[in-house]
Amino acid sequence: MNTLPKEEAARAILARNDRGGYTVPTDRLYPFQWNWDSAFVAMGFALFDVDRAYRELERLIEGQWDDGMIPHIVFHAPSDTYFPGPDVWGTRHRIPTSGITQPPVFGMALRHVHEAALATGEAAATERTRVLFQAALRSHRWWLTARDPEGLGLVSILHPWESGSDNSPAWDEALARVPTTTTTTIRRKDTGHVDASMRPRDEDYQRFIHLVDTYRDCGWDPKRQWAAAPFKVADVQMTGILARATADLMHLAETFGTDEEKVELTRMHGRLLDGLSSRWRPELSRFVNLDLISGHDVETPTQAGFIPLVALTFDDGQRSAIVAEIERWLDGMVVGVPSAPSFSPSFEPKRYWRGPVWAVINWLISDGLRLNGSADLARRIEQSTVRAIETSGFCEYFDPTTGEGLGGDTFSWTAAAYMALGRRT
Ligand code: GLC
Question: Residue ranges of the Mannosylglycerate hydrolase MGH1-like glycoside hydrolase domain (predicted)?
Fold first, then answer.
């Protein structure tokens, strides 16, 4: 039974972006399978087609490397509408993939899909979950060894694209140290699909590709990359998602894990919660990243500072501080939560990750608020997101000052977020 005015349209977008068991984020601009997009999309499918939800995760895992990393892009089929393609990455997996990763929403999605399968009595659920649980566990092991070799309890990104918040002002200082020289010839395709004023600037694009060149020259070996990386930021958004996904795997391990695996996951979880807690800054009422090259806190305000809500249980003081801070960011906005607040000097309401609102970020923040007992604020965020989508369409992101839809349209994860958040409001 359809309860949402745009339920049919949302499902039609997922159908239209289906390329055979996996969903592209949107046609042309992003013509392959993206890691965290697919995890959100799987949670969307779980609402009405559990088999297809599993398929989405299974197809993503086809791209998983032998060392456990789940790449940020799996190039299942060729397309010439995107740069950088497989030839630039030069990776050596069985099927072409990129060489970097993205936020591990996968574990969260797996628990979600598994629970939907139990509720609908999907016969093959147990076996499918068992296989995917092992894949997720291998990827979490990769995270902790490859991206926290120093045992900080925080995982680092070596490329801004790994964060999922590609062009965030949180990377400005660290990225400015990265040279603009490249050995790869840059042929941007994104600005052919979307207005250049909304996309990253050319100079930053050269730095993005410089990093790809550097890591490809390391043969994509995690140890060599860690040593060579000119960009290394311990990210609270990534760590928050990883910690939450680890808790979800602990839950699944009750059914699917061995005793050793349960102990291992509990240790991982404890280490991540300790690391994350150390990044809370009471004077800012949010969490901050750590730049491992400079050794400094990154205090630039971005949405990432609130994402640890999905993993941590706050005391009352912390909770009211973070709630008041989010409310300050929402003040005067048509739709929130902005990826940078309007009072910040780096705020640009239409440019990629420098102000606009992403529906999936709101999904995480409202989830975290609900977990921490702040359902009213969660509902306010969910309702404004659903309204923006109903008014402006299933766009990639939204201008917080007007609610205008921007970037690519007919976006898969926006459709998934609409169905998930719409059911809660
Ligand atoms: C952009 C976003 C990233 C997303 C991808 C596909 O690169 O910054 O988060 O995964 O598009 O939608």
Answer: 30-414
> Can you tell me which atom of ligand 1 is nearest the CA of 163?
9
Helix/strand/coil for 345:
coil
Q: Which residues pair with 386 in a beta bridge?
A: none
Within a 10 A sphere around the Cβ of 374, how many other Cβ atoms? 20
| Cα 336 to ligand 1 centroid, rounded to whole Å | 19
Instruction: Determine the Cα angle at 269 with ends 165 and 275, to 5°.
Output: 60
Does 164 contact ligand 1 (Cβ within 6 A)?
yes
Question: From the CA of 164, how far away is ligand 1's center (Å)?
Answer: 6
Q: Which of 289, 292, 261, 259 is nearest to 276 (CA)?
A: 289
* CA distance linking residue 131 with residue 24, whole number of Å: 23
Amino acid sitting at position 159: H
User: Which ligand 1 atom is nearest residue 408's CA?
Assistant: 12
Closest CA to 298 of 185, 175, 389: 175
Q: Residue 192's pLDDT is what?
A: 82
358-388, pLDDT tens digit by residue? 999 999 999 999 999 999 999 999 999 999 9
* CA–CA distance, 213 with 182 (Å, rounded to integer): 7
In this prediction, residue 2 carries a pLDDT of 55
The one catalytic residue among 18, 62, 67, 166 = 166
- What would the pLDDT profile of 176-218 be if each residue is shown by its tens digit? 999 999 999 988 888 888 888 877 788 999 999 999 999 999 9
pLDDT band at residue 3, thresholds of 50, 70 and 90?
A: confident
- Is 166 an active-site residue? yes
Let me know if 26 is exposed, middle or buried by CB neighbors in 10 A (0-12, 13-18, 19+). buried
* Distance in Å, CA 318 to ligand 1 centroid: 31
CA distance 284 to 322: 9
In 9-67, which ranges are E strands? 33-34
- Ligand 1 mean position, distance from CA 260 (Å): 35
pLDDT in tens, 62-84: 999 999 999 999 999 999 889 99
Of 98-112, 182-196, 199-213, 320-334, the one with minimum mean pLDDT is: 182-196
Q: Is 25 in the pocket of ligand 1 (CB under 6 A)?
A: yes
